[in-house]
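Hey team,

Sharing the Uroporphyrinogen decarboxylase (URO-D) run so nobody has to redo it. Sequence (346 residues) first:
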Amino acid sequence: MEPREIILKAFQGGKPERVPVTLFGGGMWSIKDYGSSFEELGKDAAKMADMCITEADRIRSDVIYVGSGYNNFHASALGTAFGAGIKYREIGAPDLTAHFVNSEEDIDKLNIDDVHKDPVIKNVLEATRIVKKKIGGKYLVTMTCWGPFTLAARFVGEEAFMKYTFKKPAFVEKMVNFCADLLIHLYAPLVSDGTLECLSIADPTASGDLINPKQMAKFAVPPLKKMSDWAKSKNTHTILHICGNTSDRLEQFIDTGCSVIFFDQKVDIAKAKEVLFGKMCFGGNVAPVHVLLNKTAAEVEAACKEIIEIAGKDGGFVLVPGCDIPPTIPYENLKAFHDTAFNWKY
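Structure output:
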C-alpha cells in the first residue's frame, strides 16, 4: 500500500498494513531544511512545490501539507483594503500586521472573493496542484488553513474576540460562520478540479486551554461541521488539529464531522481511544518539544512505541506530533519518529 492509501484506510476506521504516521504542518522545519524562506517561496509556486516534493521524500510523512505557515494570508487578503498586511519574520511563519473587524457591520464590508486575488495565495494553490500532479498518487496531498474560530480571532484580535464570546455572542457566531464560508470558498477550486481529497484545519484558538466546552460547542464546532459537511458532499476528507487539553470535550470532535482529530500532547490518549475508537479516527500525540526536540532518537522511538501501545494497536489511529514541530528538531529524531510507525506492522 502507498502512504496515501494507508492513512485513508485509517481515516475510515480501518487497520492498514502498518501504523500511519505524519507530521502536522511541518512548514517551518521543511523550509529551513530546504534552505529557503517563507518570503522567497511565497513568490514562486514552482519552487514552493519543489520544496514540498523534496522534503516529502526526506521526511516520509503520509501527508504532504502545502501552504503550511501561510494561513494568515487568508485574513490579510481581505484586510488589504483596511490597512492590514503581512510581516515576514526571521524565525516563524508570516504574521498579520493588524486586526480590522470589530462589528457585524465590518463583516458586511468584507469581500470573500478577495481571497483568490492575493498573489501568495494564488501561488500556494498552484503549488498544491503541482505537488498533487507529481506525487499525489503516493502521498495524501492537502493544503492548510486556520479553523473558522482561529481565523475569526485573527480578523478581530484574539483578546477582544475572547471577550466577545461573552459580551457579543451574536457577533462571534456571525464571524465564525463567515470564516467557514471564506474557507470553503478558498478550497472550492482545488476540490472541484480534483486536486484535493483532504482539507487540513488547525484551530489553535479553540484550544482547551483558552475556551471551555460550552464555548467550543457554541462557537467552534458548528463552523467546523459546516466545513466538514461541505467536504463530505464533495467526497473530501478533513483533518482537524486543536491545541491544548481537550480531554473534557472529546465527544465534541465527533460532532465536528471531521475525518480525524490530531491531539495535543496534553490530551489523555488512552481516554481519547476509549471515547472515539470505532466512531472517529484520531491521532496523537508525541510531544514536539519535550520529546522530538529534546530527547535522543532512541528516546523518541520509545515514546512513539508507548503511544502506539496505548492507542494505536487496533487501527483507526495515526501517529502524529502533538502540534506543528519546531524548525530545530534534529533530522535523526524525525527519522526515528517515522521509522517507529513504518516498523509497526498490524
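The chain is about 50% helix and 10% strand.

Ping me if you want the raw files.
A.
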